[in-house]
Design a protein that fits this description.
It is a single chain. By secondary structure, the chain is α+β, with helices and mostly antiparallel strands. The protein is built from 11 helices and 4 strands. The chain folds into 3 domains: 88 residues, no CATH class; 39 residues; 99 residues, no CATH class. Helices cover 53% and strands 13% of the residues. It is elongated and about 80 Å long. The C terminus is likely disordered.
Length: 255
């Protein structure tokens, strides 16, 4: 009974937080919309926002979020999402700080919507969202050099292409261009967490130099992963830097 009560309380807490957050996003959007309307209809100047911030902080001293800087974010937020339907979409499910980050760093509305959806699906923190944006995840998604179309049935091959990136960004290894294959592998293993984040979601590390016997021949896979969404193994070969996928290899050609 205690276990069940704890679970219900945690779920209620999450629901309450999401409801409060969505209400806050709605409030900020409406304030931003009103500022835009007053600027258009009444000819408000830039100094009016500063005065409004002082008045609001005076009226609600215990409430944070009414600084002039934040009011300008509200204005940009409402300007970027003029349709009230946005309050039922992805941005309303993100924290205000996530939304401010998206407004600062992603000017294209389509890309911004994509990053918002990915943040919700993967539970990215603000810092991780910044990393994904600055590493160009949107542009890299689904273009990696693979053998998926030839080894995986449709639609799994399409799903695999959507889940993987191109090219992978391993700048966090701080390695020079002349590093040999073994150094690259050791560097990746030394920063396995960062490597898995760069690969994307759903990956589990199986092993390095993983031994596999096929048709009486011995093979050693540089890096072997399992992907939970694809339900198959993913092989990283450092020789040609390609990524391969295999369910049940029949020969070394399938590998």
């Amino acid at each position: 009974m205690l276990k069940g009560l704890k679970e219900r309380i945690r779920k209620a807490q999450v629901k309450a937080y999401l409801a409060v957050n969505q209400e806050l996003i709605g409030l900020y959007w409406s304030i931003g919309r009103d500022i835009l309307t007053q600027e258009s209809e009444q000819g408000w100047g830039a100094k009016v926002v500063d005065r409004l911030a002082l008045d609001l902080k005076s009226a609600f001293p215990e409430v944070k979020g009414f600084s002039a800087r934040n009011l300008r974010y509200m204005k940009v937020f409402a300007e970027s999402y003029p349709d009230p339907a946005i309050l039922q979409a992805a941005p309303a499910k993100l924290t205000w700080y996530h939304n401010c980050t998206l407004l600062d760093k992603v000017k294209d509305s389509g890309k911004r919507h994509w990053y918002a959806l990915q943040t919700i699906e993967n539970g990215w923190s603000r810092d991780l969202l910044v990393h994904q944006i600055e590493s160009g995840l949107y542009e890299r998604q689904g273009k990696s050099t693979t053998n998926f179309k030839s080894t995986l049935p449709h639609p799994k091959s399409e799903l695999a292409h959507q889940l993987l990136k191109d090219p992978y960004n391993f700048d966090f290894l701080e390695m020079g261009k002349e590093q040999i294959e073994r150094d690259l592998e050791r560097g990746l293993l030394g920063k396995l967490r960062d490597f898995l984040l760069e690969l994307g979601t759903g990956f589990a590390f199986v092993g390095s130099q993983y031994h596999l016997e096929v048709d009486g021949e011995d093979f050693y896979l540089d890096l072997l992963f399992y992907h939970f969404k694809l339900r198959c193994f993913v092989i990283k070969e450092n020789v040609d830097r390609r990524v391969h996928c295999a369910n049940k290899p029949q020969s070394h050609r399938d590998i």
